[in-house]
Amino acid sequence: MTELALFYHTRDLVFLKEVAEREGISEKYLTQLVIPLRAKGFIASRRGAGGGYRLARHPSQITVREVVEVLEGGIALVECVVEETACPRSFFCPARKVWKTVQERVMKTLEEFTLEDLAQMYREKDFSLDYTI
Q1: How far from chain centre, in Å, is Cα 106?
Q2: DSSP letter string over 66-105?
Q3: How many CB atoms lie within 10 A of CB 2?
Q4: Cα(104)–Cα(118) distance, rounded to whole angstroms?
Q5: Distance between CA atoms of 75 and 106, rounded to whole angstroms?
Q6: What are the pLDDT digits (tens) for 25-74?
Q7: Which positions ≥6 away from 57 have C-beta within 8 Å?
Q8: How confident is the model at residue 10 (pLDDT cuts 50, 70, 90)?
Q9: What is the DSSP letter of 45?
Q10: Contact at 8 Å (CB) between 53 and 33?
Q11: Is residue 129 predicted with pLDDT exceeding 60?
Q12: Half-sphere exposure of 96 toward its Cβ, with a 13 Å CA cutoff?
């Protein structure tokens, strides 16, 4: 998704083969990733000669949280944080409050970064992520 964000303003479409080569991952794996991303409206594609993929929305309108949720499903560090009835101890467990706080901060952080942010960091080679939670 960062690759698509990088080329959002300069190219109409990006080939998965190019992304696979640049990122050092399998094209077959990328093919599997684009299925849910396209189904949820995050990317658009065109088949045939001159075909490829692009972001369906501006990179500044897609958060990292959205992408992670599409690819991974719900994000839960421990099950009881999202489903109280997952554990009979949930209602009186002091650790649940800690995990719930961690969960909320993770979600907030993922929401604060957009694909545009990631593309900009890549352009600037700013991988320090000097970020205060």
Answers
A1: 13
A2: HHHHHHH-S--SSHHHH-GGGSTTTTT-HHHHHHHHHHHH
A3: 17
A4: 21
A5: 9
A6: 999 999 999 999 999 999 999 887 778 999 999 999 999 999 999 999 88
A7: 41, 42
A8: confident
A9: E
A10: no
A11: no
A12: 15
**Whole-number pLDDT of residue 83:** 86
Reported as a single tens digit per residue, the pLDDT across 77-90 is: 888 888 888 888 88
Q: Which two tokens stand for residue 5?
A: 């964000």
The answer to whether residue 62 sits within a structural domain is yes
Give the single-character DSSP code of 24: T
Q: Give the CATH number of the domain where residue 82 resides.
A: 1.10.10.10
Domain residues for the domain of 11 are 2-124
The residue among 127, 74, 126 whose CA lies nearest residue 103 is 74
Indicate whether 44 belongs to any domain.
Answer: yes
The reply to whether 129 falls in a domain is: no
Q: Is the pTM of this model over 0.85?
A: no
Residue 131, in any domain of the structure: no
Tokens representing 107 are: 């979600």
- Structural domain count, the chain: 1
Bridge partners (DSSP) listed for residue 63: 114
